[in-house]
Amino acid sequence: MADNATLARRIHEAWNERSFDEIAEATAPDGTITIVGSGDTFVGPEGSRAYNAMWAEGFPDGRLTVDRVIGSGDYVVVEFTGRGTHTGTLVTSMGQIPATGRSLTLQLCDVMEFKDGKVQSQKSYFDSGSMMAQLGLTSGQTATQHQ
After folding, report:
1. pTM of the complete model
2. What gap in Å lies between CA 97 and CA 71, rounded to an integer?
3. Cβ atoms < 10 Å from Cβ of 101
4. 76 or 129: which carries more pLDDT confidence?
5. I need a labelling partner for 81 at 20 to 30 A (CA). Which of 28, 64, 70, 110 fits?
6. CA distance 19 to 13
7. Residue 147 pLDDT > 80, yes or no?
8. pLDDT tens, residue by residue, 92-120
9. Positive or negative CA dihedral for 68, 39, 60, 47?
10. Helix (H) or strand (E) holding 5
């Protein structure tokens, strides 16, 4: 069995391949992914698929570059850079953000806890203000509400 740092790196690299089933299989049945800024939480393998598809749908050409992986026992921190063009709708808990056609580069950090070789929790940190600014959204151009 691979160590947790290797598993965490592979999960992030699998995103570039859109291997969402592989990522879901690495998620515990009650595992959680939480976007720290909004508190949005995705649960289990199906939540993992939804979380990853959300980003891929908003940024179809999106790519991750793993910058640093630091592991200590059951915990792993992954710093990574996400790049892509916002050509799809990004669905968030605050509403849908229609495609802007703008390029985006974000620095992100995931803090992951593993249990029995599966992701038990993943907390994702990123600067949503930077994301909104790069997408050209202002106070007059906000996400549309869910119907």
Report:
1. 0.90
2. 35
3. 9
4. 76
5. 28
6. 9
7. no
8. 888 899 999 999 999 999 999 999 999 99
9. positive
10. helix 4-16
